[in-house]
Amino acid sequence: MIYSLVEAQVREAAANPENIDYDGSINWNFVDSDCYMSGVNKFFKDDTAYYEAWDEAVEKVIAEQPVELMNTQLEMDV
Q1: Contact status, residue 12 vs residue 5, Cβ threshold 8 Å
Q2: Sign of the four-CA dihedral 46, 1, 25, 19
Q3: Residue 7 contacts residue 60 (beta carbons within 8 Å)
Q4: What is the pLDDT of residues 28-63, one digit of tens each?
Q5: What are the contacts of 12-21 at 24+ separation with CB within 8 A?
Q6: Under 8 Å between Cβ of 60 and 9
Q7: pTM
Q8: Greatest extent of the chain over all pairs of C-alpha atoms, in Å
Q9: Per the count of CB atoms within 10 A, which of 9, 52, 68, 74 is most buried?
Q10: So where are the chain's domains?
């Protein structure tokens, strides 16, 4: 149950346009901040336990990303 709260927060923050860089990649530092500030971390005994759940949720979200997003490479004209 608690894990699902973290996963929901990660998904919500990862979809927030403010947390998406110009190249379409997710800024995980911003996602981390949004999730932590939501207060979901207070359901865990300490930050270590919270971040274990957070890392697992992030890995799940990343694994669900389309391959073309994970292989995006920017090219610059010079």
Answers
A1: no
A2: negative
A3: yes
A4: 999 999 999 999 999 999 999 999 999 999 999 999
A5: 13/38, 14/61
A6: no
A7: 0.79
A8: 52
A9: 9
A10: 2-65
